[in-house]
Amino acid sequence: MDVLARFKVLIIDPATLVVFTAGFLLFMWGLAMYLWKLKDGGDTKTGVNHMIWGLAGMLVMVSVYGIIALIANTIGVDPINPVDPGRLQGIQPTSKFFPIFGQ
Length: 103
What we know:
Blueprint: H1 2-40, H2 45-75
Helix pairs in contact: 1-2
């Protein structure tokens, strides 16, 4: 569990933020190009394409956070507040594999 939390915090989160930032910068660059070409009366298609791809990149990265949260909630993993095994003192394992079935 600790490995999954570290993997998310050290690899997934920074990578997602870098790609989200790149999408935002691409969107802003496309907006600047669009406005500049609009002012000059030129072709605005390149700026519009950059804005669309920037929005698509940001949408994908927000979706990644949602998918990670969905998977974490489904399997019961909480990467933000992981269980500290040192706090589980005094808990003895049962001798039966399925103790709730009375075997």
